[in-house]
Design a protein that fits this description.
3-stranded parallel beta sheet, elongated, 172 residues, mainly alpha
């Protein structure tokens, strides 16, 4: 006789809806998963850059004796200069064609620009731009001083052939 009757009570739509700006569990889980994936990618990028840095450091250690002997040669070389005309100056700005080392490119170019700003007369000053980053910089600031532009030189780790190409172009 006494039966329990279950009544369905309508739930207000407002109670079920999520508040604006509040994340539900699924969204939080997805966000945590994406953060972990980004951390993994960042860690692998760090490992790759550390390996590249170590390789560049090994190459630099192998080239240091050559640089020291070249420096000693130029210190002992006696070159007689004619003092009739004003001395000519040549700046060689070596940067890369692309990449994420913006601070290196900027510091190289700004240092040369600061030295040019200190000079009273820049008519006898020329710039050789090796790499697209230096070319783009000096085309904006010192377009008339650019003597020569070289690009696509540093695609592979630097070799003697790359340096000799630049030296031959400067001397000729």
């Amino acid at each position: 006789m006494f039966s329990q009757s279950k009544q369905l009570v309508p739930v207000l739509a407002v109670q079920c809806q999520q508040q604006r700006g509040m994340a539900n569990l699924k969204a939080i889980g997805l966000r945590l998963k994406s953060v972990k994936n980004i951390q993994k990618i960042t860690q692998s990028m760090k490992m790759v850059s550390a390996a590249k840095y170590a390789k560049a450091e090994r190459d630099l250690k192998a080239a240091r004796p050559l640089g020291a002997s070249a420096k000693a040669f130029y210190e002992h070389a006696e070159v007689a200069a004619d003092e009739k005309e004003a001395p000519k100056e040549l700046y060689v700005a070596i940067t890369s064609d692309r990449g994420l080392a913006g601070a290196v490119h900027t510091s190289i170019c700004k240092t040369i620009r600061a030295e040019l700003a200190e000079k009273k007369n820049v008519d006898n000053v020329k710039i050789v731009c090796v790499g697209d980053k230096s070319r783009a910089f000096f085309q904006r600031w010192n377009k008339n001083q650019i003597l020569m532009v070289g690009s696509e030189i540093g695609r592979l780790p630097p070799q003697f052939g790359d340096a000799s190409k630049i030296a031959n172009a400067v001397l000729n």
